[in-house]
Amino acid sequence: MAGYAIGSLALIILLSALNGFEESIFGDYQRSSPDLKVVPLEGKVFLPEDKLINELSENKSIEALSYSLEDKAIIKYGNQQVVGVVKGVDSALFRVFDVDSWVKAGSLELNQNDNFLGNAWLSEGLVYTLNVSSSDQRLELLTPDRNSSSVAQTNLNQEVVRISSMVHLSSEENEKTIIVPLWVARSLFSREKEISHISIKTKGNPFMVQGEINERLKPHGLVALNRQEQNDTMYKMFNTEKWFSFALLVFILLLISFNLYGALRMMRIDKKEDLYILSAMGMPVKSRSRIFSWEAFFVSGLGTFVGLFLGVLLVLVQQKFGIITTKATFELVYPVSLRWTDILVVAVICVGLTPMGLLGRKST
After folding, report:
1. N- to C-terminal Cα separation, the chain
2. Could you tell me if 102 and 166 are in contact, meaning their C-beta atoms sit under 8 angstroms apart?
3. What is the dihedral of CA 265, 266, 270, 271, to 10 degrees?
4. Pairing with 165, which of 21, 182, 300, 350 sits 20 to 30 Å away (CA)?
């Protein structure tokens, strides 16, 4: 019983901790990744056709569209420089994303008028890498000119932008990303009309809208990716780790069920004379076997209930008071998230393994 209690306790705590990390990690993706992202099947850029854009704009399931052009460039601040990702966006960005949740310092201004100096939003990692002291500083963006005749005669395109804010993006983008107006990116990368992708905000279920618009996008060599497909590697890695840990604990529960089997076998031997008496009194073989069956389910059921109760209690206490914290530079509360589906899954698995302890019941 103690084994089942500890096993179910460990399972519910493990799943809740992994759920907490999942929400913490993918919460950033939720904020900085669009519902759908239209990208080319081949190459890095494509030319948005007016007919296709009109079809997408008139789709009642689509709320807003935003163009983006991004590529790598040298980002220079004073004597510091680093290779990062320059992401040019248009003003529709504010309709597709909850941009206010990104900002950590400064103001969210994007100058879309190419008669003035363009503003720039720096990701947190880039601010620390370049050691930017304050906003309203100047940055240089440098990249090889695509129209250079040869490698030996490569010219550098240069753009100067003004830092207006520091933003927090997803973990992959947060290290070396700078967001600038679309016209700055087009001038820097020598692309007059091409874009890298279209960010889409949907009104309904993104998965339903994805299937609908992909039929129209395929003839144009484009595809719409949902949020999970946009970050496919991270999702796969996290899910693999989650279910591997879960399978390991289930295997331990399987071993506990074999211990239950051994305990029942020993009990059959110990109660052999009592079973003879019950047999002489007329109790059928099935009824005698049922005694041990019910005992097995009582042991696993009560143990599982106690473990789940304690596990849920500990998770709720952690959510409320944040007792367990990390030991990193900054003390952070370990995130946990309780899902009732996990409780149901753990209960079914623990009780479902119980018949493994009844394999010898015919020996009665």
Report:
1. 23
2. no
3. -30
4. 21
The helix (H) or strand (E) run that includes residue 64 is strand 62-77
User: What is the average per-residue pLDDT within 198-213?
Assistant: 87
User: Contact 161/118 with Cβ under 8 angstroms?
Assistant: yes
Residue 286: count other Cβ atoms within 10 Å of its Cβ: 10
Query: What is the per-residue pLDDT across 171-186, written as a single tens digit (0 to 9) for each?
Result: 778 888 999 999 989 9
Residue in 359, 358, 364, 341 with CA at minimum distance from that of residue 300: 358
CA distances for 270 relative to 265, 284, 356, angstroms: 9, 19, 20
* Amino acid found at 361: R
Specify the DSSP class assigned to residue 195: B
Structure tokens at 224: 């719409």
| pLDDT over 60 (residue 329) | no
Q: For residue 336, what are the contacts with CB-CB under 8 A and spacing of at least 6?
A: 13, 16, 17, 19, 20, 315, 318, 319
Q: Which residues pair with 333 in a beta bridge?
A: 325
Name the helix (H) or strand (E) containing 242.
helix 232-270
The rounded distance, in Å, linking the Cα atoms of 90 and 251 is 52
Sketch the domain layout of the chain as residue ranges. 2-27+234-363, 34-229
Residue from 257, 109, 121, 102 nearest 170 by CA? 102
β pairing state of 156-167 and 138-144: antiparallel
pTM of the model: 0.69
Least confident of 41-45, 82-86, 118-122, 261-265: 261-265
Contact (Cβ atoms closer than 8 angstroms) between residue 353 and residue 11: no
Q: Which of 59, 75, 331, 16 is nearest to 203 (CA)?
A: 59
pLDDT value at residue 73: 92
What pLDDT, on the 0 to 100 scale, is given for residue 328?
Answer: 53
d(CA 76, CA 188): 14
Secondary structure, 3-state, 136-176:
CCEEEEEEECCCCCCCCCCCEEEEEEEEEEEECCCCCCCCC
